[in-house]
Each structure stands twice: as structure tokens, then as C-alpha cells.
Automatic annotation (TrEMBL):
Entry-linked SUPFAM superfamilies: FAD/NAD(P)-binding domain
Source taxon at top rank: Eukaryota
Keywords, in A-Z order: Cytoplasm, Golgi apparatus, GTPase activation
Organism from which the protein derives: Piliocolobus tephrosceles (Ugandan red Colobus)
Function: Regulates the GDP/GTP exchange reaction of most RAB proteins by inhibiting the dissociation of GDP from them, and the subsequent binding of GTP. Regulates the GDP/GTP exchange reaction of most Rab proteins by inhibiting the dissociation of GDP from them, and the subsequent binding of GTP to them. Promotes the dissociation of GDP-bound Rab proteins from the membrane and inhibits their activation. Promotes the dissociation of RAB1A, RAB3A, RAB5A and RAB10 from membranes.
Region called Disordered, residue ranges: 128-147
GO biological process, one term: vesicle-mediated transport
Main location: cytoplasm
Subcellular location: Cytoplasm; Golgi apparatus, trans-Golgi network
Protein name: Rab GDP dissociation inhibitor
One Gene Ontology term, aspect cellular component: Golgi apparatus
Family: Belongs to the Rab GDI family.
GO molecular function annotations of the record: GTPase activator activity; Rab GDP-dissociation inhibitor activity
Length: 147
């Protein structure tokens, strides 16, 4: 490799991709590399499900009851972006959005104690939820005093 670069970025996590994008948009010649055969570093999304089992060295593979492996897409770290936040503006500026898909979250789930729980997204769901909650996670509501 005889080429010269202004910047060399190692890794393809979100931070590295944003940094690489900003440098490139501002006229720098960037070499962006990753040692992994996939993009995203520790915050990657893994599909099909069989790849997730390989990554965590689970020899038995997913059970047939989980259906087709390609129907699954598992985020190692779920990523939520506020619709009009600074991060979204930065992604638009660097044109990284050419490689991203934004979609409305239809549901979020957590795995705890051997069970899968739906994360409540409304007050009604929260009150009806059987998900294990830590009392410190429940916000204190101000009491309403009468006249």
C-alpha cells in the first residue's frame, strides 16, 4: 500500500464511522479499516440468528422453534436516536445516512433471568407489565394536593 492518507480510522463502531465521515466530508483522505469481517464493532447487528450463536460460541445453534434464522436481526447494543437530536443532524451532515435505515420502533424486548420481557412504551403497558422492575427505576410522581 503506497498511498498516503490524512487520517487512518481503525474500527467500524458508530464513533469511528462518524469520525471517518466528518473527516471525509471536510476533504480529508481517509483510510477506514476494521479487523472484523463485519461492520459495527461492539454495536453491530447480527443476522442470521446462526451467526449470533457462532459469535458467542454456542455449539447447539438456535432451536427450530425460533423459525428461520434470516428472520432475526439482533442488535448487540440497541440503538435509539431521537428524531431531531444532534446525532441525527451529524449523521445527515456526514451523509452516513446513505448506509442507514431509519424506522419506527415497533417493540423492544429484554432478556433477563432466562425470560424475554417486552419493554413497556406507554403508561398503560407499564402498569400492566409483569417485567421485573427495580423500584429505583420508577419515577416519583408529584402528589396533587386539594384546595
Amino acid at each position: 500500500m503506497d498511498e498516503e492518507y490524512d487520517v487512518i480510522v481503525l474500527g467500524t463502531g458508530l464513533t469511528e464511522c462518524i469520525l471517518s465521515g466528518i473527516m471525509s466530508v471536510n476533504g480529508k483522505k481517509v483510510l477506514h479499516m476494521d479487523r472484523n469481517p463485519y461492520y459495527g464493532g461492539e454495536s453491530s447487528s447480527i443476522t442470521p440468528l446462526e451467526e449470533l450463536y457462532k459469535r458467542f460460541q454456542l455449539l447447539e445453534g438456535p432451536p427450530e422453534s425460533m423459525g428461520r434464522g434470516r428472520d432475526w436481526n439482533v442488535d448487540l447494543i440497541p440503538k435509539f436516536l431521537m428524531a431531531n437530536g444532534q446525532l441525527v443532524k451529524m449523521l445527515l451532515y456526514t451523509e452516513v445516512t446513505r448506509y442507514l435505515d431509519f424506522k419506527v420502533v415497533e417493540g423492544s424486548f429484554v432478556y433477563k433471568g432466562g425470560k424475554i420481557y417486552k419493554v413497556p412504551s406507554t403508561e398503560t403497558e407499564a402498569l400492566a407489565s409483569r417485567a421485573p422492575l427495580d423500584p429505583q427505576d420508577i419515577p416519583k410522581c408529584p402528589s396533587q394536593e386539594g384546595p
